[in-house]
Design brief:
Blueprint: H1 3-26, H2 32-58, H3 64-93, H4 104-125
């Protein structure tokens, strides 16, 4: 199994675990806005995880464009989804001290955008 697939597998375990915990363990403790934020984090996590899985299977070709998009999506998941997971649960894990991660969310979104824009280059390389 290549390294890319292993990374996707770990991110998949995290996505399912966090999603299940959010749906079953956190829901009684979060308000509607926090739940919506958590669900947004989970949705973007899953979407980009699936794209990364597809890219991982294609990366045997060592194509630099695909590798770049893979890593851009990876960073996007960590920054965008990760910061939203923290922000949606900040009242449970320490309160306003976690507000510092707020500016990380749009940077993570930018990494997602860059990953998709980079894939446009792949279409023109073939």
């Amino acid at each position: 199994m290549n390294t890319y697939i292993k990374i996707v597998a770990v991110l998949g375990v995290v996505a399912v675990s966090i999603g299940a915990f959010g749906a079953h363990g956190l829901e009684p403790y979060l308000d509607a806005k926090q739940i919506a934020t958590f669900k947004t984090a989970s949705l973007y996590h899953y979407i980009h995880l699936l794209v990364m899985l597809i890219l991982a299977f294609k990366l045997n070709s060592q194509n630099k464009v695909l590798q770049t998009s893979f890593w851009l999506f990876f960073v996007g998941i960590i920054m965008f989804s990760g910061s939203l997971y923290i922000l949606s649960t900040k009242d449970l894990i320490g309160g306003d001290v976690w507000n510092v991660v707020g500016p990380i969310t749009p940077i993570g979104g930018l990494f997602f955008i860059l990953g998709w824009a980079n894939l446009f280059r792949y279409k023109h390389l073939n």
